[in-house]
Design brief:
Length: 319
């Protein structure tokens, strides 16, 4: 998979955002050069290999997915007022809010420009899937914002929100890689479902690491979701598991104004109610569902190795 990562990095470098006006393009180059796991383009290329496709042919879709993903991060960081991303200052902190909005908008446009370089016979369906994914991500983001104001959010509502906000992107990455490689509908559908389960496990792992991760490896400040009063899976489960006294303590902890004290007390209550344990169990549940789908895929077993490995890596990640 290291070869695929280099292939993606070379492709991103070839996009060359060292152009004028630098006020618009420099933040794009900064964002794409800051690294990241490159999961979405990697999945598109892995799907291409699984389906005997050409990496070069699928590359425009892979790059478009990565640029689109990073566009969402610029706007997401701005909405969350996040200070760091991948261990570096976020675009709105390094530049300003207007730059994060406008450079993010341009990244969205760039993603649509890039994906048009795939073969014409796959372009119409690819654009439909890409646009469907983009719409669902915006819907998921809106639910996320709405849930901050709601007094209660159910586990089912939360899972649907992260399916839209997070999981449809890796799912579409796998499907596009298969589609552009000429795979049949059954294979595309199975890969899409694997991506959904992978994305759900990925986001729940992110929720867990936001509370229990190591700030030196996580790349973001620990406790950000707590400070933003986000109704994550851990939050919802903690309230569900808590007794009357613990629920009162949780509400009081979330009302604290001192950031360090708030994070400390909320985290203690999360652990006391075993919300952390249930989150890890849910991560494993979706991971197992993804593996079950992978086992049903009607392709030679040796071609499943890279996707199996990436599922394993994402389950154990610490950043």
């Amino acid at each position: 998979m290291q070869d695929l990562n280099r292939f993606i990095s070379d492709g991103l470098l070839a996009l060359d955002y060292k152009r004028e006006p630098q006020g618009l393009y420099a933040p794009i180059a900064y964002t794409l050069e800051s690294g990241g796991k490159r999961v979405r383009p990697m999945l598109a290329l892995i799907a291409a290999q699984m389906c005997d496709g050409s990496l070069q042919t699928v590359l425009p879709a892979a790059l478009a997915l990565e640029v689109f993903h990073n566009f969402t991060l610029l706007h997401d960081d701005l909405m969350d007022n996040a200070d760091t991303r991948r261990g570096k200052p976020t675009v709105h902190k390094k530049w300003n809010n207007n730059t994060a909005i406008l450079s993010g908008d341009q990244m969205l446009i760039e993603s649509y420009k890039i994906i048009q370089d795939i073969p014409s016979q796959y372009l119409s369906e690819s654009m439909r899937l890409f646009t469907k994914m983009a719409t669902e991500i915006c819907e998921g983001q809106q639910y996320d914002i709405d849930y901050e104001k709601q007094s209660e959010v159910s586990i089912d509502e939360y899972i649907n929100m992260i399916r839209l906000k997070t999981a449809v992107l890796p799912a579409t990455s796998l499907q596009l890689g298969a589609l552009i490689s000429g795979a049949n509908t059954d294979i595309q559908t199975t890969l899409y479902q694997i991506g959904i389960y992978l994305g759900l496990a990925f986001q729940l792992r992110d929720d867990y690491l936001d509370v229990y991760g190591n700030p030196e490896t996580f790349g973001k400040n620990i406790g950000g979701d707590i400070l933003d009063n986000k109704k994550t899976f851990i939050y919802i489960v903690a309230h569900h598991n808590a007794n009357a006294e613990q629920n009162i303590l949780l509400d009081k902890a979330f009302a604290l104004t001192d950031p360090a004290q708030k994070i400390k007390e909320v985290t203690q209550l999360y652990t006391l109610t075993e919300a952390d344990k249930m989150c890890l169990e849910q991560i494993d549940y979706y991971h197992q569902l993804a593996l079950q789908q992978l086992n049903t895929l009607q392709i030679p077993e040796e071609k499943k190795t890279d996707l199996y490995n990436i599922l394993q890596q994402l389950l154990k990640r610490d950043k």
